[in-house]
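Whether sequence alone determines local backbone shape is best considered at the level of individual chains. We regard such an encoding as a compact summary of how the chain folds. The sequence in question and its structure tokens are set out directly beneath this paragraph.
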Amino acid sequence: MRQAALTCNGDAEATYATLGKRPNCGQCLEEAQEIIEEQRAAASCEVFAV
């Protein structure tokens, strides 16, 4: 999920789809979205640090 967050520009559902998955009940989507946003923020910090 974390690596997919960097290659997919969409939300949590779109990121699941790039992995060939889809959420069953949707309860994880909020937490998944937080992880995605954290990964993208960390990656953008690394880009600016270079």
